[in-house]
């Protein structure tokens, strides 16, 4: 999903397309090489380069940069929805246009023998609950 400020012109749209991210109206904040979202953005943009972009070392800094008005970024929904900056109104989100979204797959691996630690069980239950919760705006 696209993370942006509520006063961004893109926030008035129901969805944001890859074309919107490279048209130069707003700088694109991308994760540096080595991050999963860096690869996702490159696949999404299909070789196109934004006219201006920033690079950051993670989602938290990306969201802060968005809140400060430096541009927009693309992050997984679980990284934006419910974030203190989102709850406080400093950032908001819009889905990527049809056909430009992705699916997040999380896997918990456990030993074949022995008990499963409580922290792992709790995390698994949280993931199962969240997986059934729609997150679209």
UniProtKB/TrEMBL annotation:
Ranges of residues in domain LysR substrate-binding: 2-130
Identification of the protein by name: LysR substrate-binding domain-containing protein
Pfam families (UniProt xref): LysR_substrate
Organism of this sequence: Streptomyces antimycoticus
Family matches, as CDD domains: PBP2_LTTR_substrate (cd05466)
InterPro entries: LysR_subst-bd (IPR005119)
């Amino acid at each position: 999903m696209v993370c942006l400020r509520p006063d961004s012109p893109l926030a008035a749209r129901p969805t944001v397309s890859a074309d919107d991210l490279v048209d130069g109206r707003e700088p694109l904040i991308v994760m540096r090489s080595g991050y999963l979202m860096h690869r996702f953005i490159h696949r999404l943009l299909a070789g196109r380069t934004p006219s201006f972009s920033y690079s950051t070392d993670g989602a938290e800094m990306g969201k802060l940069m968005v809140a400060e008005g430096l541009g927009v970024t693309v992050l997984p929904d679980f990284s934006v929805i419910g974030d203190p900056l989102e709850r406080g109104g400093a950032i908001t989100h819009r889905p990527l246009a049809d056909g430009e979204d992705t699916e997040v797959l999380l896997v918990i691996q456990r030993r074949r023998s022995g008990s499963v630690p409580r922290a792992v069980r709790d995390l698994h239950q949280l993931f199962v609950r969240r997986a059934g919760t729609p997150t679209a705006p």
